[in-house]
Amino acid sequence: MEQKIALVTGAGRGIGAAIARELGRKGFLVGIHYNSSSATAEKLKEEIGNAFLIQADISTIEGCDKIYNEIKARPEPLEVLVNNAGAVKDNPLFQASVEEFEMMVDLNMKATWYLTKRLMRLMIRNRSGRIVNISSIIGSQGNPTQSVYGMTKAAIDNFTKVAAMEMADYGILVNSVAPGFIETDMTKDLSEEHKKVILDRIPLRRIGRPEEIAEVVGFLSTSGTYITGTVIHVNGGMYGG
Asked: β-strand 51-55 against 78-83: which pairing, if any?
């Protein structure tokens, strides 16, 4: 295939790293964005081979602009943007702080909105592109102690639908993938009791793997030519949308 860029934010580990590997297998030149996971990002770059690194704090406008400028300067066209980077801080509503709120809004919501706003211009030039936003089951179903996280992820799904409408005339498809409970750093420290409560709510009776999210992102990045403005739930039957 003609060499095209697939940029994955928060690709240094977890779901982001699995997505980067999958898009590398699909033949893309993979842009691996990371903020602080330099060692794992470098290892991932070596593993994929056809990849490059971008370090930036995308909770800031300056960090997002840095990504835009680096992608714009490259000779290869940007074909895929995966807005994967995110943060979660669990706290009951009455204990949640303004600082926690601002941190999650900046990284989960503002970065997705602003990066899409900037990078879509590069896709419009080519009248081609795929944007995949990683949201969460929590944005649709809700979960105690995750009022802010759920609010930001619900906003991403709504943003996806609006962006899909606005970009359709330019040949750009925009979709969300909403993972359920997946084996990542966010879930590995759960107690066995908590895991049992979760598993009892999942018809497939297991926690998902990052690769199972990556498979769906890979499909949306290369196929699914009549799919846009959609939230695809990947959660073992826990929530059907």
From this structure: unpaired
